[in-house]
Amino acid sequence: MNKDIKASLDSVAERLLYGVMSHSEMVQYYSFLSLPHYANEHGHHYQEESETYHKYVRFLIGKYNYVYRQGAISAPAKVPASWNGAEIFNVSDGDRKKYVAYGLKQWLDWEEVTLDVFQEAANTLYMHGELFAFKMISRMIESVESEIDDIKQYITRRSALINSNEVLEEDKYEEPVKKEEQIAPVTPETINVVQ
Ligand SMILES: [Fe+2]
């Protein structure tokens, strides 16, 4: 395979995979802030983009007989290191607001770079006459564009309320379940079920 074609195909596979991991990190980020709307939204993208990734690597095998090797990669860190060991119940409303804004900014930056990576790959593939790959990546570009529109809408809605006490539906804090309630207490009876 021509090395430019391979580099383009690889760049898309890598970005897709990093994107999936990035959304997974954001699920944790918003769960820690007890903001289920955003956590679910990222969970939804995690699933949808995982599917796209798998379709894409299967396409590479089917069309190019090429198995994409992901090599050693680590998840893009989205959750601040300072949260390690911190208490979910101690996040103040003010901090939560700041972190939502920061999370949206990180998400937007991420998808804008993704768009660049996909557009560059699509152009190169088009120039080399790789029209199937071009079409497939063009569809990914459309979906990133619509994701970017959604993020911008979140940002716009929030900035419209910057000086008001009104809270957007998606910004609503949901009291997390206390740890003790999540796990039933372990008693000698529950341990010795099987005698
Ligand atoms: Fe995404």
CATH class, named: Mainly Alpha
Bound molecules: fe (ii) ion
Fourth CATH level, the homologous superfamily: Ferritin, core subunit, four-helix bundle
What class, by secondary structure content? mainly alpha
What does the overall shape look like? globular
As a whole number of angstroms, the C-alpha radius of gyration is 21 Å
State the CATH architecture: Up-down Bundle
Fraction in helix: 55-70%
Main sheet specs: none
Strand content: under 5%
CATH-assigned fold name: Ferritin
Distance between the termini: 62 Å
State the low-pLDDT regions, or none.
none
Summed up, the domain count is 1
Overall strand count? 0
Which series of helices and strands comes N to C? Answer: HHHHHH
- Look at the structure and give the mean pLDDT: 88
Q: How would you describe the overall organization of this protein?
A:
The protein has 195 residues and is mainly α. It has one domain: Ferritin, core subunit, four-helix bundle (Ferritin), CATH 1.20.1260. It is 68% helix and 0% strand. It is built from 6 helices and no strands. Helix 1 (3-32) runs antiparallel to helix 2 (36-64) and helix 1 (3-32) runs antiparallel to helix 3. The longest helix is centred in the middle third of the chain and has 35 residues, at 93-127. It is globular and about 60 Å long. Bound molecules: fe (ii) ion.
